[in-house]
Amino acid sequence: MSVIIDINDLSFRYAKESQFFNLSHVNLHVNEGEWLAIIGHNGSGKSTLAKAIDGLLAPESGEIVVDGQKLTDESVWDIRKKIGMVFQNPDNQFVGADVEGDVAFGLENQGIERAEMHARVHEALEMVDMVDFAKHEPVRLSGGQKQRVAIAGVLALRPKIVIFDEATSMLDPEGRMQIISLIRQMNRKEKFTVISITHDIDEASLADRVVVLDDGQIIDDSLPQDLFQKGAELIELGLDVPFPQRLKMELGKMGVLTPQEYLDEGSMVDWLCRSILKN
Amino acid sequence: MDKMLLGRYINGDSLIHRMDPRAKLFLSFYFIVIVFLCNNWQTYTLMVAIVLLCVKLSEISLGFFIKGVRPLIWLILFTVLLQIFFSTGGDPYWQWGPFTVTDAGIINGVFVFCRFVLIIFMSTLLTLTTTPLEISDGLESLLKPLLALKVPVYEIALMLSIALRFVPTLMDETTKIMNAQRARGVNFGEGGLIKQIKAVIPLLIPLFVSSFNRAEDLATAMEARGYHGGAGRTKYRKQEWKTKDTLGVVMFLLVTLALVLLRK
């Protein structure tokens, strides 16, 4: 697996005079085709990191290399073509006056021919299952539908990397599930490299690798199953643990012996059934 | 806010709906110019016939157009009364101090009334049959010659279409903030003038703050999607100039000719 994003010793702060660095000496490598989740409590620097990768914020020191290209003032537009971003608030990233127009916005910026645009917009809307809504205005869509349109806008551009900056945090549970399954499909089937920045622990547990940020520093970088085993530690960091792990901890408190390794929902159900049958 | 007819669009598939927005924009402005050519019964009758024909072709009921006149009715009546009472010339019917009512004055009053109503009908027709998006696209291409004068036409068009896209969002937000402040005891539209103005502050300040936040977020999202100015952009939406648009223009030119001939 080749490295597609290479971050070396990245530091950043919003206010020059402040002592606090929003990102300090971050080193991170993202492999091609990987699904990386970045978690951390509020204000830990997750979104700042995402914006820095896309060149939306200029780092104070350190360098970022995306797909072999170093991020500089000259290369920033080339790099943005390789990265698609979906932001938190579905209302504030809708540029077009209707669904089609919004999906086409990025294509218009790249100066793509009209016939090609029509084909790509249709294809992207099909992938997110929004073809029937092509002529709808943003006010007539739900939050989850707006996020799907935003994802279609990214898909139409065919980037190599897609960054979800807390894209599910303002959605209802149903909208969230739809977006998560879309992310999974994009990563597994379409082979996009996915970075998802999230509070949602269920989303993080589906990723290939989880990075934990705390006050601008990376404090953990491991597989989800290894990470969630650390139950209590994560709660101290202001994070949550997935439901099976929480159940395991509660059972532990009641004196039930539970397996050491992390169990996802399926294996937790299996384990529970087996232990009940044994008694 | 539901009563507001400005910028309201009524979905339909009539001949007028399907016309090119550029043609509609141009003809609406052109109509306002040629209305001032009218100065007698024949010309006004012709114009009324044209407007009624357009209304008929749009397949929208006349009621909507009459609603469009309603907000301006006081202005119209005021102007008409001024015309009637302060016109000189013609045979005076009635005189009292500075007020005179003459036959010419009454005729002028009726003409001014017709002129107002015709212009309002025509501009209502434009907004009822054209989506805001089409209007901003149409304006962009009509303004294109101004590029030579270094007018930032693309940016103006983008500004316009973003402004139009945010109108419903901000309306929703206003209602939400009003409800939230009401839940905390603010009374909107009650008490004296000063008190009413003061009650607007808890509405306006959050609205401004949230608009700026939205603008910031939107700018970031646009930049992330590769927006860097109007140059080199292509357009997704294509405007097609069809035979019916040419016919519309030809019809209006014939009307102009007829007006010039019928004028006294």
TrEMBL record, chain A:
Major subcellular location class: membrane
Membrane disposition: Peripheral membrane protein
A Pfam family it matches: ABC_tran
Gene3D superfamilies, per database record: P-loop containing nucleotide triphosphate hydrolases (3.40.50.300)
Single GO cellular component term: ATP-binding cassette (ABC) transporter complex
Signal peptide positions (record): none
PROSITE patterns registered for this protein in UniProt: ABC_TRANSPORTER_1, ABC_TRANSPORTER_2
Domain ABC transporter: 5-240
GO molecular function, one term: ATP binding
Family recorded in the similarity comment: Belongs to the ABC transporter superfamily.
Full protein name: Energy-coupling factor transporter ATP-binding protein
UniProtKB/TrEMBL annotation, chain B:
Bilayer-crossing regions: 21-38, 44-65, 72-94, 106-126, 246-262
Keyword Cell membrane: yes
Entry GO MF terms: transmembrane transporter activity
The UniProt record lists the keyword Transport: yes
Topology with respect to the bilayer: Multi-pass membrane protein
Keywords: Cell membrane, Membrane, Transmembrane, Transmembrane helix, Transport
Main location: membrane
Domain of life: Bacteria
Pfam families: CbiQ
GO cellular component terms, semicolon-separated: plasma membrane
Subcellular location: Cell membrane
Family indicated by similarity: Belongs to the energy-coupling factor EcfT family.
Record function comment: Transmembrane (T) component of an energy-coupling factor (ECF) ABC-transporter complex. Unlike classic ABC transporters this ECF transporter provides the energy necessary to transport a number of different substrates.
HAMAP family associated with the record: EcfT
Complexes and interactors: Forms a stable energy-coupling factor (ECF) transporter complex composed of 2 membrane-embedded substrate-binding proteins (S component), 2 ATP-binding proteins (A component) and 2 transmembrane proteins (T component).
Name this polypeptide is given: Energy-coupling factor transporter transmembrane protein EcfT
Protein species of origin: Ligilactobacillus salitolerans
